[in-house]
Design brief:
Trna Endonuclease, Chain: A, domain 1; 8-stranded mixed β-sheet; single chain; two-stranded antiparallel sheet; mainly beta
Length: about 120
Amino acid sequence: MNTKQKGDIAVAQAIHYYMSNGYEVCLPIGDKRPYDLVVEIDGILKRVQIKYAGFYKAKAQHVAALRVMGGNQSWYTAKKYEPDDFDERFVYTANGRRFAFPWADVTARSTLYIENDKYSQYEIA
């Protein structure tokens, strides 16, 4: 699977999770926003950024990049997310685990090691 396919699976998992829990899910058109979904429940809107966390043998952990990667044959860029870019982070791991947590609760700004104990409280059953 390529990176785009993995991201699509993570988005599908997030949509399933939010819709199954009574949220209205709105999909922004295009990919110019730092968030992937807007969800609403009881009149409260949340911007959600979704990441797929692949397993890295060298670290023996699932890892998600906390930046936007882009470019072409001529240039490459990596832009870190700002504290107010979105409200919630949804992570789907290569082994099928799902996490949803407030972006404000993430202290890391470049790489997220999802097995870190501080994120265990946000795992979705």
